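quick one before i forget lol
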Amino acid sequence: MVYTYLAKLSSRQKLWFTVSVAAGLLIIVLGILCEPDRPSQAGNQFTVNMSIREIAPKLGVTGKGLARELALPLETPKKKPLNELGISQEQLEHATTHILSHHSTGLKYYLFAAIVLFGLVYLTRFGRPDNANISERKLWYPRIPYIICLLAAVLVCGFLLGKSPNPMEGTVKVFKSMVGLYPSVTDKLLVLIFFVLLAIIGNKLICGWACPFGALQELVYSLPILRKMKQWKAPFWLTNTIRGGLFFVALLFLFGIVGGRKGFVIYHYLNPFNLFNLDFDHWLILVTVVVSLALAFFTYRPFCHLICPFGFVSWVAEQISLTRIKIDHEKCTNCGLCIKACPSQAAKDRVSDKLFGADCFSCARCLNVCPEDAIRYGSVFSKSSREKLQKQSALEKGSASVGIFGGFNR
């Protein structure tokens, strides 16, 4: 089927494929060249005879940030030696190791951008071969390019380069910096803006194609088992209420509105990205990883839908995404095939034209099932898209009936 798909690509689409791969590789090479030296991971350079004020700047955190890692009140005196504050050398080494594990590698930003770029071009330019008509729609959007991107996200952006940065962390650190756990709010805000832009350029493409733990859940869900159980889809109103409610409660604790102590980070205990560093410093982290992956066998992206704070933020952002799934409601017969193919309630909400529908992770499952050619992935700025779809459909039917070799380009 892959060879047939490649044969059906037009010359223009082959050029798009070549350019997108070349551009992605160029972005990655640029990231490698721009990668700064990583900070030392040696924890023995710090001793309990030193103060928080001496250690914190070398770790890239504030005094409050180091105090939180040491389970001390944020207002703990920063000039006192740690041994006078009751901190042991073992506690200090554990805290510094954890802080250093959050140090970002800049290369991952370039990799995220490269994967999102490829996914965007694939979905909008060459996923659907110009020379394959509606009767050959099973050739459209083969899964292999998507699976390759998911594997790259898990193996390279995850296990090879470690947990940081990632979209979840990018969200949480903005608010942690607001309570003084990091020196600069601006730096953390720029990281969040980067991830949000990747979610807007292509509808949640950063979540659907490039996020390491999101990709791991996608791969688990894609295994051809428990198919009957996968037919049940959790109501979006319920999952989004849980996710949004947790986000709100987490902020109340972080800012000390609840609990009376600033700096308590609920997401620290629910961070599955620790898997990529094999760092389970709290038993709840391991439980989160195990339960999320177990549920992923029959529930679509449970962590993304129920817990992830960036999942909630990007759901808001996708309301203004520049490229997305589009339904031609004049051609749609409500046959339900796209709804059945979709692993969540996203297709159902788009068919019904719901204002704030369920998260769409741009997985492309719905794009090759419609017998009326009423569903496409494209820009929200495309001119007269409905007329264009109708025109292309008519031309495809005509070319199929007279056996014209080739096809027309979108």
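fyi Confidence is low (pLDDT under 50) at residues 384-390, 399-410.
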